[in-house]
Amino acid sequence: MNGDLMVKDLHVSVEGKEILKGLSLEVKKGEVHAIMGPNGSGKSTFANTLMGHPKYEVTSGDILFKGESILEMETDERARAGLFMAFQYPVAIPGLTFGSFLRAALNARIAPSAGEDGKMPTKKGIPPKEFRDLMKKHMAALKMDEKFATRYLNDGFSGGEKKRAEILQMAILKPEIAIMDETDSGLDIDALKIVSEGVNTLSGPDLGVIVITHYNRILNYIKPHKIHVMKDGRIQATGGPELALELESRGYDWVREEVGTR
Amino acid sequence: MSTEPQTDIRDGYAEKYGFHDTEQHVFKSRKGLDEAIVREISQMKGEPEWMLDYRLKALEIFGKKPMPTWGGDVGAIDFQDIYYYVKPTKEEFKSWEDVPEDMKRTFDKLGIPEAEQKFLSGVGAQYDSEVVYHKIQEKLEKQGVIFLSMDHGLQQYPELVKQYFGTVIPSSDNKFAALNSSVWSGGSFIYVPKGVHVDVPLQAYFRINTKDMGQFERTLIIVDEDAYVHYVEGCTAPIYSSDSLHSAVVEIVVKKGGRCRYTTIQNWSNNVYNLVTKRAVAYANATMEWVDGNLGSKLTMKYPAIYMMEPGAHGEVLSIAFAGKGQHQDAGAKAVHCAPNTSSKIISKSISKDGGRAGYRGLVKVMKGAENCRSTVNCDALILDEHSRSDTYPYMEIEEDNVTIGHEATVSKIGDEQLFYLTARGIPEEEAAAMIVSGFIEPVVKELPMEYAVEMNRLIQLQMEGSVG
Questions:
Q1: B contacts of A76 (beta carbons < 8 Å)
Q2: Are the C-beta atoms of B224 and B256 separated by less than 8 Å?
Q3: Is the predicted pLDDT of residue A118 greater than 60, yes or no?
Q4: Any idea which fold A5-44+53-93+176-259 has?
């Protein structure tokens, strides 16, 4: 059985240094996965590689999305195809309002044929009023002020606002596979709750979610189908929720000792 | 990011603005500049004697002044290889129907009559050396607002013109001001009477059509006490293989409590030298605002100035300079505080790309005795690739201690992380870069009337086309 996202023996280097050393993973729509692991295990590298960040070089292996390799696809093409990454530290873009940014993103997403010549789709996309209504509806659900739409993208957003903004984008862009880089968010309980509620609300038969985290506290709020333990650039162990409890009590060091390298 | 060869960023210009009409002037001076040419211009215009004298004196000054050795490279300008006066029509028209077909079609293409219908209260359209169309709403005319071509202004209001002409920018100010003063033609003359608010902008559009020509419009705006006007100018030219020269002089007087906003969207073709002197004097509690968008030209040297003459005067210069391949934008501002309790604000945003060079050159000057002045200068530069250049020359001459002066300057590049964030949401890279640039200039663009803000963003979009990262 093939998953909607198949990662096969993925090796990735950053500036000549190999970070991912044979990562394999299979995620289907409707599933929620958690990838846990100590600092420096390659979790964020995996998220960025999935989205095609130019700094990350795939040296071998493959990533298949809906049965096709995405390695040759640009970042924007991957996003339009239905991949989504919730950023841990979304970057600010002063002068660009959140609303106009999100409308441009949605228009790109709903016209997936666009971008072949590097240009935006010629068709008009979602009418402004329809978009405003859609955004209002989702903002209300996330308890966001409507004025949010007129603020500059991630500019001066608080930690919680950034998280809500990422979840709002995910809700509106309706990806098929979303990877949430929450490596450090275990530090901030509010941020954690916002992300968890977002995942719980949005997950369903049409969405597969991968949550990346360093702390297992997030598992108090999310019930993943599968938990993967990552260390030294590969998945070292995979299991159900019980694996998290094990990590809780014993830390990460036992993984290598007992499970070993596969 | 891609390293593919980049296309000329102003590719889109050719079709939209870079076309030219077949020449069909009613008069064209021979090439070159001398006393005979100046006399010929003045005579053809039927000017009063004092204006001819003024021109001839200016010509003399022009001959004596050295070329500027700072700013951009003006060494290649051959003053004897330029047509100084090209008269397109016998007269100036009040109806587009009367404007010769070719010229009307040109202005139609540029959207001028349409804009006039929709959101302007008066329009002047200059084609080469003369204004071919000029009209102001009757309502404003009845309130005593004068909006004429400079030539008609001189004919109809000789005393008013004589009183102010050359008082803000004397011929001796600089070489190009002297040149303009000797061969000026066209431009706008505006007078707004006491207390009158012109709520809807007046616009002038300047179009060069003839190859190897110089356009030297002259504008004088007088805003009387507690009056308000917003004047907008736009300009484009055909793309020729040889260079054209545009050298304007704009003088503005804002009297007690008055306010003037002067918006420029400069979009000359890349073969135009744009060497312009713009200056305003603001009296008690008056406000002068320059909103200056520079996208076109080969070289622009322009530093809109405000002299704050009496207490309470306020000056602002908000500028955007975009330099692409082969372009040098040496833009800036001058704020001169001559009286106590005056304030100024300068915001400059420059963008350079494909080897272009854009910068800020500005002066804040506080005279002795001008206490409690406040001035803030923000100049931000965005450099889009490693071939391009940005310069900042902020000069300060502060002769008074009790003042508040702030200056901030930033230079940045489009961040890879910003591009990654936007593309990770499905937005193509080229579009993403344009969005970042639009965001960068947004503090200035939001000051533009909606229609011009849209136009400015569209022009930026055009500039960004064919540029991948």
A1: 423-429, 432
A2: no
A3: no
A4: Rossmann fold (3.40.50)
